[in-house]
Amino acid sequence: MMEMFKERSLVIATKHAKEKAIAPILEEELGVLCFVPENFDTDTLGTFTGEINRKNDPITTARNKCLLAMEHSNCDLAIASEGSFGSHPSIFFATADDEILLFLDKKNDLEIVVRELSTETNFQASEIKTEKELIDFAEQALFPSHGLILRQNKNDFSKIEKGIIDWTRLSDVFNEFVQISGTVYAETDMRAQFNPLRMAVIQQATKKLAAKIQAVCPNCKTPGFGITDAQTGLPCSLCDSPTRSTLKYIYTCQKCEFMREELFPNGKTHEEPMYCDSCNP
């Protein structure tokens, strides 16, 4: 437990119950006292359904959430998460939850960020015309343990129902909307309190964040000493040419800029020839 944070109040910038995943870990690992601000609306910075577009990148948005929560609660320590959902950047045909978690300490001028990229998500959306299609979609989306959102069509927000978690309400809303427009746009509700899969990813990100906060700079002891760069070039075991695999990680302190290199971070000094552009072009 770090004395720098012990028994300090930490505001969790959320209106979607993320404290359930975040608070237990940070209270145990850092000794902080977590709370959620009353009447705090993070939707002003953007919504998943698109009524309010997110104007900034995920890190900036998470930072703004922290700053708003700090001002709202008169607290100098805050944490916020920001999720993005869509195609996985490197796994073909896979969808992903890309979760950013940002920890902000005004008192010590610290900002520590982690990212958790997971394929454990039910994120999907579809235009629905029949109850059979609706049932199929709902079952694939892990309904009713995971919530759904219905609206008349993808770009129409005049009629929208969020947080649907029972079959009766799902059917009633569908029948109401389909009589008006002939089709209904269904999507998974990605707000944390309606999405256990996302809550689990936030929990994993929080564990990663706690570990990074506890990693201190060898030179000045500032928390958050983490990987800032990864360099490729791991040599091929057959021809010794550099490959695209990671050769080393670079760790940098955000305070004193002390730098350390970690060679062969994945536990191997050479790469298999099948991953070499020279041996297997």
How would you explain this protein's 3D organization?
By secondary structure, this protein is an alpha+beta fold. It folds into 3 domains: 9-121 and 196-214, Maf protein, CATH 3.90.950.10; 125-189; 227-275, no CATH class. Helix content is 26%, strand content 29%. It has 5 helices and 12 strands. It has helices spanning 19-30, 58-73, 131-140, 167-181, 196-214, and strands at 9-12, 33-35, 77-87, 95-105, 110-118, 125-128, 148-153, 156-164, 184-188, 226-232, 246-252, 259-263. The strands form 3 sheets. Strands 2-1-3-4-5 form a 5-stranded mixed β-sheet, with helices on both faces. A 4-stranded antiparallel β-sheet has the order 6-9-7-8, with helices on one face. A hairpin with a 6-residue loop joins strand 11 (246-252) and strand 12. Helix 1 packs parallel to helix 5 (196-214). The radius of gyration is 22 Å and the shape is flat. The termini are far apart.
Main traits of this protein?
single chain; 281 residues; alpha+beta; Maf protein; four-stranded antiparallel sheet; 12 strands; 26% helix
How is this fold's topology laid out?
Layout: E1 9-12, H1 19-30, E2 33-35, H2 58-73, E3 77-87, E4 95-105, E5 110-118, E6 125-128, H3 131-140, E7 148-153, E8 156-164, H4 167-181, E9 184-188, H5 196-214, E10 226-232, E11 246-252, E12 259-263
Helix pairs in contact: 1-5
